[in-house]
Amino acid sequence: MNEKTESIIGCILGTAVGDALGLPGEGLSKRRLQRIYPHLNQYDFFFGKGMVSDDTEHTCMVAQSLLVAGGNVRRFTGALAWRLRWWLLPLPAGVGLGTLRAIVKLWLGFPKPGVFSAGNGPAMRSAIIGVCYGEDLPKLREFVRASTRLTHTDPKAEYGAMAVAIAAHLATHQSPISAADYYQTLEGILPPQAREFLQLIRQACHSVTQGGDTERFASQLGLSKGVSGYVYHTVPVAIHAWLTHQQDYRGGTIAMVRCGGDTDTTAAIVGGIIGAGTGMRGIPPEWLDNLWEWPRSVSWMKALGAKLAIACDRAVPESAHPLAWYGIILRNLFFLVVVLLHGLRRLLPPY
Question: What is the DSSP track for 181-249?
Fold first, then answer.
């Protein structure tokens, strides 16, 4: 298995495992999360088993769309638009409001379905684009923009998605990158209008250089109760966690979850970036073994990544990786029941 294949598989599986690790704590404050889940050394979703949410599903949809696009952005946009439409029909739990509105507009035939939102949806699915096309900056820009604007038209969402894609690309070099180098790279890519966002990234990089931990940095941004889904909150803290734990998948994802808030998305982003650098071998084996998913199983995601790596090398369209779509409705119903049980659990102590 070559390095490109390892990075793509590591990114997809890293996203999934981070998503599953953070999912039980999604929406909890940092203090409440630490009381309910004091250890975080295993999945707490369903008797030690983990399941994924929209973060992983979107990453897989982007991977499938890149697979059939063969490097053509227009073909990619059309493929992702249809996948987003059909993804909504089996009623996935936890759809972001901005994404929901955009997909409804897609079904209604709006030529520009994106809504003006700075949510973290585009950032959660952009790491895989960076792994595939980070060496070709113009193409990377096009793919990140296409993926973002299908659902979110606020430029802030695109800045955040690009920051994640660049981080994932740099992680594939499989050697630690300095916080200063990451910042300088991003500064040279984003437009002058992104200065507010770049200032937040500069703060994250400075904190990393000074040895600050991720929880403390989040508190410095006013996120002491938890990291929200606003992209200017999500991405700087996620970048901090990645830069601090570049070769430590376990440490990076746990540090991110410990911050509270939108923990499934933030840990999915960090997991995807670190996984791109470490490959599948850097992800704790017990977390992979206990990822309880179907039809998007670990073996299915691994095969998707391998197929995508070949497609990127050949730069020609490939057929989508087969997915047992008939099982998604039953899977989503079971997932919803467990999510509702977690909601009831949160009514109980410890407070």
Answer: HHHHHHHTTS-GGGHHHHHHHHHHHHHHHTT--HHHHHHHTT-SS-B-SBHHHHHHHHHHHHHHSTT-H
CATH of the domain at 318: 1.10.4080.10
Which residue in 307, 309, 227, 218 sits closest to 268, CA to CA?
A: 227
Coil, helix or strand at residue 147: helix
Q: Could you tell me the two tokens for 113?
A: 């379905």
Tally of domains within the chain: 1
Distances (CA, A) of 341 to 15, 40, 263, 338: 24, 19, 18, 5
As a whole number of angstroms, the distance between CA 211 and CA 315 comes to 42
The two structure tokens encoding residue 337: 């029941």
Q: Does residue 351 fall inside a structural domain?
A: no
Report helix, strand or coil for 261. Answer: strand
Joined tokens for residue 123: 């950032």
Residue 122 lies in a domain: yes
CA angle 47, 8, 112 (to 5 degrees): 95
Instruction: For 335-351, write each residue's pLDDT tens digit.
Output: 999 999 999 999 999 88
Say what the pTM is: 0.98
Summarised one tens digit per residue, pLDDT across range 148-167 is 999 999 999 999 999 999 99
Does residue 195 form part of some domain? yes
Cα 37 from chain centroid (whole Å) = 22
Q: Measured between alpha carbons, how far is 101 from 85 in angstroms, rounded to an integer?
A: 11
Domain that holds residue 302: 3-345
* C-alpha closest to that of 278 among 303, 296, 253, 304: 253
Examine residue 339 and state whether it is found in any structural domain, yes or no.
yes
The token pair at 172 is 């594939």
